[in-house]
TrEMBL record, chain A:
Record bears the keyword Oxidoreductase: yes
GO MF terms, alphabetically ordered: FAD binding; oxidoreductase activity
Protein name: Putative oxidoreductase FAD-binding subunit
Keywords, ordered alphabetically: FAD, Flavoprotein, Oxidoreductase
Signal peptide: none
SMART domains per UniProt: CO_deh_flav_C (SM01092)
Keyword NAD: no
InterPro entries, per database record: CO_DH_flav_C, CO_DH_flav_C_dom_sf, Diverse_Substr_Oxidored, FAD-bd_PCMH, FAD-bd_PCMH-like_sf, FAD-bd_PCMH_sub1, FAD-bd_PCMH_sub2, Mopterin_DH_FAD-bd
Stored Pfam families: FAD_binding_5 (PF00941)
Domain FAD-binding PCMH-type span(s) in chain numbering: 1-174
Gene3D superfamilies: 3.30.465.10, CO dehydrogenase flavoprotein, C-terminal domain (3.30.390.50), Uridine Diphospho-n-acetylenolpyruvylglucosamine Reductase, domain 2 (3.30.43.10)
UniProtKB/TrEMBL annotation, chain B:
Domain of life: Bacteria
Protein name (Swiss-Prot/TrEMBL): Putative oxidoreductase iron-sulfur subunit
Pfam families: Fer2, Fer2_2
Protein source organism: Parageobacillus caldoxylosilyticus NBRC 107762
Domain 2Fe-2S ferredoxin-type as annotated: residue spans: 7-83
Keyword tags: 2Fe-2S, Iron, Iron-sulfur, Metal-binding, Oxidoreductase
One MF term in the entry's GO annotations: oxidoreductase activity
């Protein structure tokens, strides 16, 4: 139960959603776009989310698109993760999605919600960072498309009133050799100690991580070190660890030292599997 | 003071249209239990973790503590009260797949959806689906046996 009063709105088009947001804001209200609603509802209970209105984007056709044209995959932001898994247009994204929460929760958690949420693991963004995907964003100025790297740096950076409509991925990425591994403190459901996703493109390994820092990221510095094949493997991996952004997470799920230990083993496995020796 | 956002909603629950007056921020779990007297879906963690509140919306299992009732307007809601002597209910009894029974409605709704939509489910799929629910009495082996029994019977009769 959301412990404060909110109004619920169900626009049928992008224009209607953007207009609603603007109107509500002009009335002095705080609206929120609403995907699966799982984070909005559960964090409201803890008073970690505040809003006067939610704008449910699940009935906007563009947000429900799941299209494979010859060149690109178009993934609507309001698609539940299980829909993406079953259609499996991008195997690395399927693997990332499948490790989020549990199957029933993933019938509700949406792609856009996972990317834009405040719970900082945002594991489905990893394949989208690796594939240099494009984000389709709607706002008062209309709909625009830009590189994910322009709008996602640790977290989504949208202007007030904007929302994520779709992600577009060049189809060539869907068939590249890839690696995905999630390690938890225990069990098969839960937040990661470390999640690593990687692809190999043109002989070069690209890597993105969640659970290591309080944000997901892809690091060019780490990639440079991992791909420095003139060096011994051990040095490449030590170099990649030194190039990690800071801070390293140090919490009840795992200490910083333990996360780095787990990550290091994972990087060895990744290079072994992707053949980057 | 905040003004109330209560409104009338028509919900299709277990094949019957019900008219309820609820706050727009009320979860489906809250409305089922407190407005409709359908107490089969259980409040557990209220955080999406335990699955005790699982119901079906258009045949898909969802955690009703993480869905607003108003979101389900125009959809078909099924709760444990809507299942009558189904194979999965019988199998739970025959396999002693519960002890205190608190988790049972949630497990049955999830397992019912699994056996209805994925009769060819392999062990990995069964495990993936059942991991959505927690049983504090640890009846996991018996629950798995009940689900497998229903799937076996289904395959035999198809
Ligand atoms: C039980 C449970 C387990 C979880 N486990 C994991 C896990 O293992 N790994 C992991 O990465 N995450 C995990 N999460 C976090 C989850 O992925 C996020 O909380 C996610 O936000 C939920 O998606 P949603 O569609 O329900 O989001 P919502 O609750 O709808 O929205 C969350 C936030 O994102 C914003 N938002 C939603 N969609 C859009 C959009 N299209 N454009 C702009 N803003 C938008 C909303 O305004 C809100 O601020 C878990 C969450 C739960 C409840
Ligand atoms: S009460 Fe809904 S998942 Fe626990
Ligand atoms: S039977 Fe008691 S919680 Fe499952």
């Amino acid at each position: 139960m959301i412990p404060f009063e909110i109004t619920y709105h169900r626009p049928r088009s992008i224009e209607e959603a953007v207009h609603l947001f603007d109107t509500l804001q002009q009335q002095g209200k705080k609206p929120l776009y609403y995907g699966g609603g799982t984070e909005i509802i559960t964090l409201s209970r803890l008073h970690l989310v505040a809003a006067d209105a939610v704008i449910d984007i699940k009935h906007i056709p563009e947000c429900r698109t799941l299209e494979f044209n010859p060149h690109e995959l178009v993934l609507g932001s309001a698609l539940p993760l299980t829909t993406l898994e079953e259609a499996n247009p991008f195997p690395l994204l399927t693997k990332a999605a499948r490790e989020v929460a549990d199957r029933t929760a993933r019938n509700q958690i949406t792609l856009g919600g996972n990317i834009c949420g405040q719970i900082f693991y945002r594991e489905t963004v990893l394949p989208l960072l690796l594939s240099d995907s494009q984000a389709v964003i709607a706002g008062k100025d209309g709909v625009k498309q830009c590189s994910i790297h322009d709008v996602f740096l640790q977290h989504i950076r949208l202007k007030p009133g904007q929302f994520l409509v779709q992600m577009k991925v060049d189809r060539s990425y869907a068939s590249l050799p890839h690696f995905h591994r999630k390690r938890r403190k225990q069990g098969k459901v839960g937040y990661p100690l470390v999640t690593a996703a990687a692809i190999k493109k043109d002989g070069q390994i690209r890597v993105a991580l969640s659970g290591v820092c309080p944000f997901p990221f892809r690091s060019k510095e780490m990639e440079e070190r991992l791909n420095a094949r003139h060096l011994p493997l051990h040095d490449r991996i030590e170099g990649a660890i030194r190039a990690l952004p800071r801070p390293i997470l140090d919490d009840i799920e795992g200490s910083a030292a333990y996360r780095l230990f787990v990550l290091k083993q994972m990087l060895f496995d990744m290079i072994d599997e992707l053949g980057g020796e | 003071m905040e003004s109330s956002t209560k409104c009338e909603m028509q919900l299709l629950v277990n094949g019957e249209t019900k008219s309820v007056v609820a706050r727009q921020g009320d979860t489906l779990l809250f409305v089922l239990r407190n407005e409709l007297g359908l107490t089969g879906a259980k409040p557990g963690c209220l955080n999406g973790d335990c699955g005790a509140c699982t119901a079906l919306v258009d045949g898909t299992p969802i955690k009703s503590c993480m869905m607003l009732a108003i979101e389900t307007v125009g959809k078909e809601i099924t709760t444990i009260e809507g299942l009558h002597n189904t194979p999965i209910q019988r199998a739970f009894v025959e396999h002693f797949a519960f002890q205190c029974g608190y988790c049972t409605p949630g497990f049955i709704m999830n397992a019912y959806a699994l056996t209805e939509t994925k009769p060819d489910a392999d062990d990995a799929t069964i495990q993936e689906w059942l991991e959505s629910n927690i049983c504090r009495c640890t009846s996991y082996q018996e629950i798995e046996a009940a689900v497998k029994e229903v799937l076996r019977q289904k395959r035999k009769t198809e």
